Queue: 2 jobs
Job 1
Amino acid sequence: MQTPEIIPTELAYFDPGDGRRIAYRHRPAKSGSPTILFLPGYASDMEGAKAQAADAFCATRGLGCLRLDYSGTGSSGGDFSDGTLTRWLEEVLAAIDLLAEGDLILAGSSMGGWLALHAALRRPNAVKALLGIAAAPDFTDWGYKPEEKELLKRDGKLERANPYGPEPSVTWQAFWESGAEHRLLNNPIDLVIPIRLVHGEQDPDVSLGVALKLMADLRSSDVQLRVIKGAGHRLSEPHEIHAILIELLGLVERIL
């Protein structure tokens, strides 16, 4: 069977209300179908393998797909050093309010999973389901050693070796401090929508224990965790992306 041609979506921009130039790609849904809003991880963008796989998945099924780059990343304007969870969450909420139509399923990768949880809490009428891909809620808390937190306070930033590229991974103090305002774990998370979590068994950045804790704290009774044996944090291998799309398909069928 010949695979249908997928027409690329055009790069466009929106302003959340203060002059920011936020890049996005939007594939409109067919009538009555939900839209997948994909939220990248920290220092990632909407052109990654998982984001593009989600877009292709939607294109072949008549689903909508909305992808965006947070300010200071990818094709968006601004400086990465100005990025905070508060600022990027504002952009996600603006994308929901200005661009999205119909029912939404949020799919968040790593930090994007943290933002997705907050967006679902703030837009309960629009968000009908959520997929966390190596979701990393509260990582500014448990993801840094005490000595690294001291360096952040002293120097205003922290550079660490980046296992995914030649450039160091930089955390800015403002971003790290914003994490304290957005902690979710160790309290009931008041979401009752269907939620699926996909996590690597050998994730070195976000331990499997974080996913188990998140599942326990979520109020929803419809939460499932898929653990991929031997997988790390990126979950970008073909069989890992396939597992993600299977969970996404299940959520689409769940809310239709």
Job 2
Amino acid sequence: MKLNDCSALITGASSGIGREFALQLASRARAILLVARRSEQLTDLRDELLNRNPKLEVHVRVIDLADKTQMESLIDSLARDKIEVNLLINNAGLGDSGPFVSSDPIRNEQMALVNMVALTSLTRQLLPHMIAKRHGGILNISSSAGFLPIPGDAVYAATKAYVTSFSEAIRAELRGKGVSVCAVCPGPVRTEFQEVAKRPGGQPEMGSKIFFVSVKQVVRAAFAALEADRPLVIPGLTMKLAMFLTRLFPMPVVRLVFRLAPKRG
């Protein structure tokens, strides 16, 4: 998958990693469809993209991906407006930090809808056209949290495990069909995600500073991996090494570590 002259759809485009995807594509893409909940931020981003590249075709869809009706309207609008997409960036995601037993059931459902259902539905809708053209790319923004069950982030980590597994499976199915699929598994990134994920009265879970990578680094690594047709990328050398070592541990060792770790919440 080459990014030059692509037509991209980016979910969660109003801020953070999604916004950076759009900015780095501005000089290379032919068209970008921005999808997020916040209209004002999307309008500002559209203006910034057009300032960078007046020839760029920019579409905006104000959609809450946790709302099934709005999700269906997005899918319908792609066919109705004849918007062809050959680069799908499933970036939108929700998190929640704290013990599962005190979690908000509505929030849990929203995480499942955004992190898994919307991602799956958009992929299913756009993939046949990519296969027919024998040209396309899918970037699924997963997380290093998906490599292990994480107490205090039980639902979020489980949804990201789904994203990584789903990406690997459809990548195998698409071998030889001209469509690249890559799971992007960053560690902690400084965006508003942690602030939104924290519960009332709690502190955002940030992790050790040595594992942090910038949004620019995440997006550069993701695009490089897609263009090189790599199945998975973990941005940042420190995080890559940490995940390599972590994945070598047998589950009994992981359970022991969790048992000895300080309890959250």
